Amino acid sequence: MSKQILMLVTSHDEIDQDHATGLWFEEFAVPFGLFQQQGYAITVASPKGGATPIDQRSLEDYQATAENEAARSALKDARKLDATISADDYAALFFPGGHGTMFDLPDNPQVQRIVVEFFENDKVVASVCHGPACLVGAMLADGSALVKGRKVTAFTDSEERAVELDQLMPFLLQTRLRELGAEFVEADDWADNVVVDGKLITGQNPQSSGSAAQAVIKLL
What are the pLDDT digits (tens) for 58-103? Predict the structure, then answer.
């Protein structure tokens, strides 16, 4: 039996009327390709299901390789995240980023449920760039934040300012994770930086996508 991976992507397609957003393609495509190479069975799901919005900025240098085309095809009809999706059926959970995640992951009850379910069942929970927005609303049974006392990374406040979107975000991810009690481990802007704390894996930015996926593969 091949290992089953659940990749959860954003359904959110705009920051405001002047700024379209969505998934950052590299953060999905690179891990998706690496997981496929391992022979893993991959389920793609999102809060709304259906076609996944892709941030067009992440397609500026797009090359129509077989791997990229396979990844784009997998994003055309995501499964809707609902109570029928259970951690029991998967070995790992992976959240790619993109600014869309900042809007539809933190307060989504099904996202919170599935993250905690994987975590409490000692399964791999991984995310990259803005994907760790999935951790913001995740609370354990005792009422404490899942990230409290844990080492994590994510798209940094410095990187957010560098792309000039810091004023348009509902919150700054690095700041919020620290407020929740996480030990935030940051590297230089755009450095490949992955933090592994037990079975919790986080990557800082798009450049960390491959390394985050490799960390998942290593744990599995």
Answer: 999 999 999 999 999 999 999 999 999 999 999 999 999 999 999 9
Among the options 159, 164, 179, 183, which is catalytic? 159
CATH 2.40.30.30 for the 4-219 domain, yes or no:
no
Residue 134 appears among annotated catalytic residues: no
Q: Which of 130, 134, 160, 183 is catalytic?
A: 130
Indicate which residue of 27, 129, 134, 160 is catalytic: 129
- 140, amino acid identity: L
What is the rounded CA–CA span in Å between residue 88 and residue 29? 25
Does the predicted model carry a pTM greater than 0.70?
yes
- Whether the CB-CB separation of 117 and 111 falls below 8 Å is answered with no
**Residues 128 and 152 sit within 8 Å (Cβ to Cβ):** no
Beta bridge partners of 41: 4
pLDDT in tens, 119-153: 999 999 999 999 999 999 999 999 999 999 999 99
Instruction: Identify whether 129 is a catalytic site residue.
Output: yes
